[in-house]
């Protein structure tokens, strides 16, 4: 008995202290002006930050995240997959159409897909000309080897591209979020068309067999770009879903490696594979049955740019 009174006393003392100190009316209104006067940036043991309350940090995140989520439940274009193809599409689309609400859904905590390394865990990235023009556009230095260029570390390309995409005011990215399904509607002509995506936090999506029904969320959009790659826990998601939803007879399945055949084929065949759904990058190799190209990324860049043009065409039609 004594123990439990002790602990409840403890709890009430804790609450009082934190409550009184935390002054409910003052949360978020902490006057940082004198705080900033206290800010000291010297490194002789005097370094001081402006004061903050824990609640301010939580509210700064919650407010922005859920405002973005609320706003983007209706988007103009949803891009599924933030690999090299999806990110290039997002960049080119956002730069060409700054008035479009572009929402990227990326299943991993870390966006970038397979573009953090060149090949076999080696770091240099090879990009065949003329795709190097995109590197010049976003400011990625490279070594010119004639028919191709080499970026000294793949992460230099991907981090630069990612930072350019996230700096675009009309782009919102939700990473650690998976697309679990497609929204499919019948249009006035009775034709089935993709009208958005069904989402869940990835940790939830990966645990549907450990917990009972954890229903998803939705984002509606007249255009969806699928760029979920050819492998990985949820790779080629949309292509596989088209088959299971009866919108595609069967997967073409990615074929053997042939760089010279595969890269132009992926770029030139990036297209609207179902009404409202554009497919890009290596997901297209699975959808169509195209050759793979291995550790060269110019095809992903070209496919991403082509997908952006296709997205504009479909959105405007
Ligand atoms: O990098 P990937 O896998 O896909 P792409 O098409 O952008 O680039 C492919 C490229 O990296 C290669 O594979 C190279 C050229 N090699 C070719 C070869 O021959 O081997 O990015 C796909 C992204 C990843 O970040 C996934 O996490 C994400 O898509 N993703 C999803 N995001 C949300 N919902 C999903 N269901 C989902 N599935 C995958």
Write a compact overview of the structure shown.
With 317 residues, the chain is of the alpha/beta class.
Report on the structure:
The protein is α/β, with parallel strands linked by helices and 317 residues long. It is built from eleven helices and 14 strands. The strands form four sheets. Strands 6-2-1-10-13-12 form a six-stranded mixed beta sheet, sandwiched between helices. The chain has a three-stranded antiparallel beta sheet with strand order 3-5-4. Helix 4 packs parallel to helix 6 (154-166). Ligand 48N binds next to helix 4, strand 7 and helix 10. Substrate binds at residues 85, 106-107, 114, 179, 215, 230, 282, 292-294. This is Thiamine thiazole synthase. It holds the Pfam family Thi4. It comes from Rhodocollybia butyracea.
What order do the helices and strands come in, and which of them pair?
Layout: H1 2-22, H2 32-38, H3 54-71, E1 77-80, H4 84-96, E2 102-105, E3 125-128, H5 132-138, E4 143-144, E5 148-151, H6 154-166, E6 171-174, E7 177-186, E8 192-201, H7 202-205, E9 217-220, E10 223-226, H8 237-244, E11 255-257, H9 259-269, E12 271-274, E13 277-279, H10 282-288, E14 291-292, H11 298-316
Parallel strand pairs: 1-2, 1-10, 2-6, 10-13, 11-14
Antiparallel strand pairs: 3-5, 4-5, 7-8, 8-9, 12-13
The chain binds ligand 48N.
Catalytic activity: [ADP-thiazole synthase]-L-cysteine + glycine + NAD(+) = [ADP-thiazole synthase]-dehydroalanine + ADP-5-ethyl-4-methylthiazole-2-carboxylate + nicotinamide + 3 H2O + 2 H(+)
EC number: 2.4.2.60
Cofactor: Fe cation
